[in-house]
Design brief:
The structure is a homodimer. The first copy, chain A, is built from 7 helices and 2 strands; from the N terminus they run αααββαααα. Chain A is mainly α. Chain A has a two-stranded antiparallel ribbon with strand order 1-2. The first copy, chain A, binds a DNA duplex through α2 and α3.
Chain lengths: ~190, ~190
Amino acid sequence: MSLRHALLGLLREGPKSGYDLLQMFKRSLHQTWPATQSQVYTELTKLADAGLLVVTAHGPRGRKEYTLTDAGLEELRRWMLETEPDRYPRSEALLRVFLLGALTRDEARDYLAWLGQKAAEDEVALTAFEDSIDWDHEDDLQLYGHMVVDFGKRLWVMSQEWADWAVAQIPAQAADDDPAAESGPPAKAAPPS
Amino acid sequence: MSLRHALLGLLREGPKSGYDLLQMFKRSLHQTWPATQSQVYTELTKLADAGLLVVTAHGPRGRKEYTLTDAGLEELRRWMLETEPDRYPRSEALLRVFLLGALTRDEARDYLAWLGQKAAEDEVALTAFEDSIDWDHEDDLQLYGHMVVDFGKRLWVMSQEWADWAVAQIPAQAADDDPAAESGPPAKAAPPS
DNA sequence: GCCCGACGTGTCAATTCTGAAATGTCGAAC
DNA sequence: GTTCGACATTTCAGAATTGACACGTCGGGC
């Protein structure tokens, strides 16, 4: 599981509480690796039981600050260096593209256009985020964080270009195109041309 | 869950067995939405229980061919039109970039270079796949399938450019850079300013 | 006639992930 | 002095996912 190692990694720059980590996920990692509350708190407990973390401070509202142990750092490095990452991101948005045949062509076009539009919005938001930060590339977390942000920007730019292209790929006319309206045997629609 | 709807979608073009569907996932959908054997067979049974599919033929080795019912098609359309897709692909490869601070800079550079190289290989493979098919854009499955393939190609091209850039972002010198080499008690490093 | 690779399905335990509910406290603003 | 939003944790049921095991059959090549 990757969440475990993400937590170890985030704790590298100093002690943090579950709440802190949750905020970090929400703010900086959400588009890459989302995490829920229950997941983070549960995992933190397990990591502490395994000796990869220790509680080093108790704060106001039952707040517990976890600190990375040597064993934790070692485990993180082992994972990074000795296990192979899954290189293929699972994309529900793209899966739906594959299944677009279940919709009319107008509906399919709408979906693709919507994807393009959302990509544009995401690009704007990410750019604003990037501009709002005074990147200090001496700091590892910022150096690598910036790389992830940059990847995101490129992804959204690419997605827009792709969506524009894809919309144009769908033939215009769509006479008896509704796949829900079945009449008789599933005869293929007459090829336009 | 999306797997359920992926199966419904694939069955739109005709009756298929679990084995057939598994092959389709392996061949065309693996990079977008992987599925295991147990998942497919289990889900098929559940979908049939729910009346979204029916078994319409029995073949040689206990082979069962499932056919999409009207209720199944309706459910697929409902999902496509009325539920919002998760637009953010979860990328373990990118998560690791975020955590690269746990490695030395040389190791980090190696990882980024490796990502770029794998992206290049994936691009080659996808292009070969694309060229091997005589795309018939009258066929919905091929039209939309081709869009997914094209997205993949763009993704790998973009990933290579990004990786090249990212490699160059890492400062060269790396004197006391090994985060595993700890000297003395786990005293926290002095917070920079 | 036999062997093997592809065909074909089913089930199980363990892990991971989602989503919600329950509970309570601190601090600032009004 | 009260109220409210942010802080903070724990727990749980249910769903999704993984990975392995177990079982059996058809067809072509030797």
